[in-house]
Structures are given as C-alpha cells and as structure tokens.
Amino acid sequence: MTPPPEIRALEFFSGIGAMHYGLQWAGVKGDVVASFDINPVANACYRHNFGIEPIQTLIETMTEKRLEGFGANAWFMSPPCQPYTRTGKQLDTTDPRAVGLLHLIRLLGTLTTPPTYLFLENVLNFESSQTRSLLTQQLSNRGYDFTEWFLTPTQMGLPNDRGRYYLTARRVREAGEDVGVPELRLVKEWPFGGAGVKRKTVGEFLEEDGEGELVRRYRLPEAFVKRRQAFSESAVVTADDVRTSCFTKAYGHHGLAAGSYLQTKGFDVNEPSTAIDRLGLRCFTPTEVARLHGFPIDDRAPAPPRPAAAVAERLAYKFEFPEEVTTIQRWRVLGNSMSVVVVGELMRCALFADHVV
Ligand SMILES: C[S@@+](CC[C@H](N)C(=O)[O-])C[C@H]1O[C@@H](n2cnc3c(N)ncnc32)[C@H](O)[C@@H]1O
After folding, report:
1. pLDDT tens digits for 124-178?
2. Nearest-CA neighbor of 63 among 117, 111, 97?
3. Residue 173: what are its φ and ψ, rounded to 5°?
4. What is the pLDDT of residue 341?
5. In the chain, fewer beta carbons within 10 Å around the N or the C end?
6. Alpha carbon of 58 to ligand 1 centroid (Å)
7. What is the pLDDT of residues 34-53, one digit of tens each?
8. Does 238 lie in the same domain as 179?
C-alpha cells in the first residue's frame, strides 16, 4: 500500500500555534508550511517557537494564486468566535470579523487544488450559524466527508472545561451532490477510548510556590470581589479539583468570569471581600494555563501518546514565551488559543488516523 502523502498544512488565524502543536502531538508526518495572523504579539510567540515568520496580513486579502502556490494539502482554521458567541450580538455573516473565514469558504469553491484535509475550531453556537451552513454546503459540493464535534478537554482527563465546536473534513471525491445545507449531527462523546491522558487534578499543573511568591505576584485583584456576595461555583478551585472553567482572553485583568482562580489556603464561600488574603486567592500563572491547554511548556504539561515521541524529538516540540511578552499579553493569547490535547487527539484519532507514524 502506498503511504499517505506528508501533510503540508496552512494554519489560518494561527495565534500561538495550537493547531501546529496539535499536528506534532498527533505524531503525523508533515508540517505547517505557512501560517497567517494579524496579531504581532501572537506572531512573535509563533516565530520564537517554530522559527517560522507568520504572514501578518488580513486573510481576506490572500488570493487563490498565492494560496495554491504553497502546495498545501491541509487547511487549519480557528477564526474569531465573536460573530457567533452566545453572549455577543451574533451578527454571524454580517460581522466584519467573519470576513476572513467567509473568504476562505469562497476560495474552497474555486481553487483548482483544494486541500484534502480541513480542520476548523470555533465556539458552541457556530453550529447553528449561517456561516456553518455556507461552509458545510461548500464542503459537500466539493466532495468532502466531514464530522462535526463538540468536545472539551475534561473528556480527555484534563481539569479544564473548554467546550468547543470542531469540524474535521477530508476530500474523498472530485465533486459531491448539491444536497443543500447538510443536516447537523454533533458528536458530543469522545468515541476513541483512552485519550492519551489519564484523569488529572489541578494540583498536577501548578508551579512550585514554597515561599508564597506566586500568591503575592498573581494575587487576585481586589476589584474582582468588590460588592460580591459569594463566588460562583467554578470561580474558585483548589489543587484537588478536576475542573477549571474556560480561560478566556480577559483572564487575570477583567473580572471573575474569565476563568477559574486558585485557592491556596482554607475556604469560606460566604465572605468574598475578605477572602483574597485569608484564602490565598491567586490567578493561575500563564505557565499553569499553558499546561492546562496542553502546550509543551515543560514536563508538567500533558505529553503526547507514545508514537508521537519520535516525531516530537525531530520537530523540537516545545513552547516558550519570548521574554518581552507581558503577563497580561500571555493570558490574552492563551485565552484566544485552544486545547492542544483536544486538537492533537482529533488529528491523531480522526482526521489523520492513517498518517500517524
Ligand atoms: C480564535 S484566535 C485563534 C488562535 C490560535 N488558534 C491559537 O492557537 O492561538 C483568532 C486569531 O485570528 C487572528 N485574526 C482575526 N481576524 C483575522 C484576519 N482577518 N486575518 C488574519 N488574522 C486574523 C487574531 O489575531 C487571532 O490570533
């Protein structure tokens, strides 16, 4: 049997490269050949870790000819979620932040050599958007089979709740039938059994803090608890918990709802205003959030399953922030990013199952 061709991926909306790490996690032969993002801070992180300079341009300005020129056979896309989030205005296709993705959907219809593989991530609610209808209809017309997923890292044993919509697609025929908008069937359970990682507690992701330096440096901002009667259930977690709430780009500088905070001492839920020092409440450090996402920042981050090890070595699988990136910038780019473990496991078990070395 002829081995499948090496993956040559384009990573659109690349941020700090969770899709790129996912590919490495999966142990797939191949690499990202070009990445695209307009955020200079995220691009500095990407360059620092992968040695590739992301193309800092609006994706909607990329021409068919330029994209064909990369000779890519896979597209990774994690476009902005604001047009679809439940808490936003849900402007969908009329939101200016949807323009980049809509451009790529259009190009999928006209490219002479469309990618064989496609991987997309977005928030829950994307599945009921007009953008999803346009994307899945285009995929069907151009001969792709695809699966839509709603998954969270807790299903893979990680103490981090980050439910997201994923779509994995493979082109299996030259052209498909025009069946209108394909019916939605979201896969919500992880079907592949033991997903690389055993169930872990929050404690396994924490940095050492013998002298209490982290409690001082990452102390919960006073303003977050002012006028609060009590904490919501997921706002504060301890080292023994197996769940943290989703860390968003507002984490650490914009109120309590942007991710969990860590309680390092004894607890009384009914006294939020005096709680910070008595309970030793602090933010998770960027290193800890990176570990929870599965970025290979150090040995305490989850490791890919066995077959990936050889590939990982070859590809220098590591994640580090450039020194000049501030703490708030670190939280922001991590909050915008994705679970490397969920992406990597979807690539390893579903999208690229016959490519894993
Ligand atoms: C949801 S984040 C994806 C983050 C990425 N997956 C990661 O691992 O960090 C969306 C990213 O798309 C970038 N972006 C948004 N609109 C864009 C556009 N029109 N052209 C290029 N990049 C864009 C943002 O700067 C942001 O980094």
Report:
1. 999 999 999 999 999 999 999 999 999 999 999 899 999 999 999 999 998 877 7
2. 111
3. -145, 160
4. 94
5. N
6. 10
7. 999 999 999 999 999 999 99
8. no
Rounded CA gap, 304 and 294, in Å? Answer: 9
Q: Which atom of ligand 1 is nearest to the CA of 97?
A: 16
How does pLDDT run across 266-283, given as a tens digit for each residue? 755 666 666 677 778 899
* Same domain membership, residue 130 and residue 11: yes
Sign of CA dihedral 317, 323, 326, 327: positive
How many angstroms separate the CA atoms of 105 and 132, rounded?
Answer: 10
How many C-beta neighbours within 10 Å does residue 113 have? 10
Residue 357 identity (one-letter amino acid): V
- The encoded tokens of residue 330 equal 């670190």
List C-alpha distances in Å: 76 to 123, 233, 253, 308: 15, 35, 30, 19
Q: Is residue 158 part of a domain?
A: yes
Nearest Cα to 58, choosing from 19, 96, 115, 113?
96
CATH number, domain with residue 176: 3.40.50.150
* Domain containing residue 223: 208-284
Does residue 55's CB lie within 6 angstroms of at least one atom of ligand 1? no
Q: Is the CB of 43 under 6 A from ligand 1?
A: no
- Distance, in Å, from the CA atom of 345 to the CA atom of 336, rounded to the nearest integer, reads 20
Report if residue 2 sits inside a domain.
no
Measure 60 CA to ligand 1 centroid, in angstroms. Answer: 12
The answer on 180 and 219 residing in a single domain is no
